[in-house]
């Protein structure tokens, strides 16, 4: 049996927190920091997991063995995916298994234990933003194409102001950063910006396929999910390690929790949104780096992140 710990997280903002020593999958642990609310084992009996789910929204749902020591909770209704995930999340301290929603049949890899330890180490050591970045940041922007990146916000012509204030030519990143700092320096622009960003707040942009399955991973550590589930952006050198490190950072800084992986999409719930300022901007650029197909500009994503309890990431061929 594998012993793991569950730590109480109670901060309300997205902030950097001290590093908490964790343990490799499948080893005994003793709490060194934080408040321990339970010491459990990774359940390996489907019947035992089904018992743990009694009294939740998944009460009575069949639990079957899955690929790579996972377990599958059957009969999840697409219209109730978040409720079902929360039910399984609520008993992780009992089951020792992190829940992730996927499309039916979207588990392709059966990892060996020796594959997991290197990813666990990488999640703690790798800088994910050396692997994932917005590759258009360095694109040149001159007077003739500035309007492609800066337009009007409500009644305010920001393009004309940018032409006066920005030293051109410059880079796309410099333009995006100028736009963000200009918006948050003006309460009227912040209000207008939140109107644009409202579409990205919460689960409004979430996607749910027609057929879903709830996968219970054989680990409580959500950042190890890339061992079992496939996300398109991770199909690059060191992609799984970088994704694991990113998920671990987001969990520690924002209380982000992975809910679903639809191959080209990741969806998270978030306990501690960032405050308006550098933290929100940094997070927006990170989300754009991992979600390379997101269409919203970074400033709108940053504003949305300050008010949102959910994230949607998208990266497609």
Summarize the structure.
The protein is an alpha+beta fold and 317 residues long. The chain has helices at residues 46-52, 81-89, 92-95, 113-125, 158-165, 172-184, 187-197, 239-254, 278-290, 298-305; strands spanning 3-7, 36-41, 63-65, 71-73, 99-103, 140-141, 152-153, 156-157, 170-171, 212-216, 256-261, 265-270, 310-314.
Kindly describe this structure:
The protein is α+β, with helices and mostly antiparallel strands. Helices cover 32% and strands 16% of the residues. The protein has helices spanning 46-52, 81-89, 92-95, 113-125, 158-165, 172-184, 187-197, 239-254, 278-290, 298-305; strands at residues 3-7, 36-41, 63-65, 71-73, 99-103, 140-141, 152-153, 156-157, 170-171, 212-216, 256-261, 265-270, 310-314. It has a 4-stranded antiparallel β-sheet with strand order 3-4-10-5, covered by helices on one side. It has a 3-stranded antiparallel β-sheet with strand order 11-12-13. A hairpin with a 2-residue loop joins strand 7 (152-153) and strand 8 (156-157). Mean pLDDT is 88; it is low at 1-39.
Topology of helices and strands:
Blueprint: E1 3-7, E2 36-41, H1 46-52, E3 63-65, E4 71-73, H2 81-89, H3 92-95, E5 99-103, H4 113-125, E6 140-141, E7 152-153, E8 156-157, H5 158-165, E9 170-171, H6 172-184, H7 187-197, E10 212-216, H8 239-254, E11 256-261, E12 265-270, H9 278-290, H10 298-305, E13 310-314
Antiparallel strand pairs: 1-2, 3-4, 4-10, 5-10, 6-9, 7-8, 11-12, 12-13
